[in-house]
Amino acid sequence: MSEPRFSVVTVAREYGSGGASIATRLAERLGYELLDRAVVERIAALAKVGREVAGRFDEHVDPWAQRLSRALWYGGFEAVSVVDGEVVNSDRVAVLSALIVKEAAAAGRCVIVGRGAQCLLRGRPDTFHVFVYAPREERARRLQGRLAPGADIEFALDEVDRERGAYTRRYCGGNWLDPHLYHLMVNAAMGEDAAVSTILTALETGAPAPARTP
Q1: pTM of the model
Q2: Is residue 104 one of the residues assigned to a domain?
Q3: Helices (H) and strands (E) in the chain, counts
Q4: Helical H runs in 108-191?
Q5: Which of 32, 65, 115, 201 is deepest in the core (most CB within 10 A)?
Q6: Total domains, the chain
Q7: What is the CATH number of the domain that holds 93?
Q8: Cβ within 8 Å of residue 72, ≥6 positions away
Q9: Is the residue at 43 inside a domain?
Q10: Whole domain around residue 129: which residue ranges?
Q11: Rounded distance, CA 166 to CA 106, Å?
Q12: Is residue 211 a part of any domain in this protein?
């Protein structure tokens, strides 16, 4: 395969679609760095907190009541984001995540999973944006082997996607389900190998930039 025309690939994904696994395989095939859990580790290092703390706020938006109580305590919504280095919350983690995504894109040769990268890097000619989805029953089947016994899979499917949508809207200024954000939308029900091959073909062929909505 010839050298891809894009040095950065972003992969947004429905929960349980297998998007993270597809992104991992894609990075391996391309010889690119994978930015997924590595984002959490980098955030933990920058914020000087444990990985589990950083992971708790990763791709999450704080509930309204928590944001309001912090605003009253610190004197305003803007004051609680990154001004106080001791505060670790969704706002601060989102800012650090955006910095890491942009640094990785500047270095190139990377596959970035989630974190609103399709919005943060929108308009870059060297960046290819992919959205991975799958039928709900397929996603539920995948999650049966991942979630704890007795977990409410239907609730998890809706809640995690709601969180990802809210995160992208609040911190990255976009609707993650907007097809105009992506070069390619892939149904993972075709199988991970086929999905990766489809993305690789699109990368090799090249594609116009996603259209901007009015």
Answers
A1: 0.81
A2: yes
A3: 9, 5
A4: 117-120, 136-144, 153-172
A5: 115
A6: 1
A7: 3.40.50.300
A8: none
A9: yes
A10: 8-204
A11: 26
A12: no
